[in-house]
Amino acid sequence: MSAGLLGLRRDGPAIAMGTVPLLFLLLLFVYPVARLLSFSVEGGNFAHFEKALTDGLYVQVFLETLRIALIVAAICLVLGYPLAYGLAIASPLWATIGFAFLLLPFWTSVLVRTYAWMILLGRNGLLNRTLLDLGIIDQPLALLHNRTGVIIGMVHVLLPYMVFPIYSVMRRVDRQLLSAAEGLGASPTQAFRRVFVPLTLPGVFAGATLVFVISLGFFITPALLGGGRVMMIGVQIERLVRQFLDWGLAAAVAIILLAAALGIAALLRRLLRGDLTWS
Hints:
By secondary structure, the chain is mainly α. The chain is 78% helix and 0% strand. The chain is globular and about 70 Å long.
């Protein structure tokens, strides 16, 4: 008994410090999700879930959201992997400068950045005017109020979320392994492809999961750059609440989105922890 009391007294400060974040999480996450769930099954039936999962409109919106999230994650990976590698091998000075530019978007509101992209991508925007003046194109490109504009805006916002996990893994890779591979006859390209890249796959999976899951719930960028023509789940939920006042259906769609995001994250986490052999 005395040992238990001593242990409780010793662990008391840690328990007290952990209680506040737990209560914060319960108040700002668990309670709203529970309220959403109660709205979605209001009346004691699952009619809202049935409509969200069977109605062609909502199924199409779900598929469009998944498609855009996959494209954004793929583009962020293509851009983020070499960027993370450059930061990992750069000198401390250049790495600091690179991180400053990478973090620069976080110093500006997402709304401000989205409006900036609207100015850049418009028919009379800076990008189209520059291409027209240079004679590269004969007429303005359609870069706004379509999927292209939405993807560009989302990639700009989410690229750092891909770079940071990959960079953290790259920094922990023992470079002597590359030297050993080259000493055994591998070319630098082969050593990079068959030794370095497989060792950085945990960062790739973590970054891809993070970008993909965040993309599923994006609202401001698709709403403004899509111009109402690109319908993602976040935009559809806002429309159900603001225009149709259908809180039950909006809650059901939100719960389905949350379940999908958690399921995808759990699946990728399982793959990440599995005994996979990469070659």
